[in-house]
């Protein structure tokens, strides 16, 4: 897993930051496509993001709001802008800290360490609020599934089914296992009840272009 993802259009500065943090044994990656930042963040799934405000196409505030639709990953803004309004805006939009350029390597490392410690030291046992399967994103807190530019709301059972399958993607999940997790008991639950729920879910997924996302393995179960 990537520890820190750098979103900075100044390549020299980005490289300098990367080298500094790598010396502290952090796994660091730099953004490649500044026009598709949200997609890269979802692919990289970092523990922390360092985000410049002045970026081409859209500014860091825009990208922060987009990322917040999917992830709670901590974001530290780095910018030469230091007005009170910029700092307030960065906090209101979902940023966790603000570093003014130019900054010393020591300050950068100290802030990164503090954010990571505060965010993860007491939450190491918590499961992720987001599951991904290629370009499909399941937001558990929102009960929504995202694909391409589309998203749909899910019922409680639909969310549970997708959660079970996506958490174990590329693995066949038996029908009785899904029934047991879904209703917390195998008693009085017919096979047809699960079939009805799966079929309804498939229709929803079809509506946003996710054809055959859930595959039936005859006599075995389901797989995504």
TrEMBL record:
GO terms for cellular component: cytosol; protein-DNA complex. May play the central regulatory role in sporulation. It may be an element of the effector pathway responsible for the activation of sporulation genes in response to nutritional stress. Spo0A may act in concert with spo0H (a sigma factor) to control the expression of some genes that are critical to the sporulation process. The modification 4-aspartylphosphate is found at residue 52. This is Stage 0 sporulation protein A homolog. Signal peptide: none annotated. GO terms for molecular function: phosphorelay response regulator activity; transcription cis-regulatory region binding. The keyword Cell inner membrane does not apply. Residues 3-116 form the Response regulatory domain. Residues 128-224 bind DNA. The keyword Transcription applies. Residues 128-224 form the OmpR/PhoB-type domain. Keywords: DNA-binding, Phosphoprotein, Transcription, Transcription regulation. GO terms for biological process: regulation of DNA-templated transcription. InterPro entries: CheY-like_superfamily (IPR011006), OmpR/PhoB-type_DNA-bd (IPR001867), Sig_transdc_resp-reg_C-effctor (IPR016032), Sig_transdc_resp-reg_receiver (IPR001789), WalR-like (IPR039420), WH-like_DNA-bd_sf (IPR036388).
């Amino acid at each position: 897993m990537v520890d820190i993802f750098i979103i900075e259009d100044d390549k020299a500065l980005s490289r300098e930051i990367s080298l500094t943090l790598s010396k502290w044994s952090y796994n660091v990656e730099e953004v490649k496509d500044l026009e598709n930042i949200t997609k890269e963040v979802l692919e990289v799934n970092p523990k922390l993001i360092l985000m410049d405000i002045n970026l081409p196409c859209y500014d860091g505030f825009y990208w922060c709001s987009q990322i917040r639709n999917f992830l709670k990953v901590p974001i530290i803004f780095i910018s030469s802008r230091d007005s009170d309004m910029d700092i307030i805006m960065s906090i209101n939009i979902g940023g966790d800290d603000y570093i003014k350029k130019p900054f010393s390597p020591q300050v950068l490392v100290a802030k990164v360490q503090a954010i990571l410690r505060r965010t993860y030291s007491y939450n190491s046992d918590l499961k992720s609020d987001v599951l991904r399967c290629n370009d499909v994103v399941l937001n558990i807190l929102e009960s929504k599934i995202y694909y391409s530019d589309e998203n749909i709301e899910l019922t409680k059972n639909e969310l549970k089914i997708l959660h079970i399958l996506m958490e174990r993607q590329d693995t066949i999940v038996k029908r009785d296992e899904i029934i047991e997790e879904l209703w917390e008991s195998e008693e009085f639950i017919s096979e047809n009840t699960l079939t009805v729920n799966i079929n309804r879910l498939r229709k929803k997924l079809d509506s946003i272009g996710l054809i055959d996302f859930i595959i039936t393995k005859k006599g075995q179960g389901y797989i995504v």
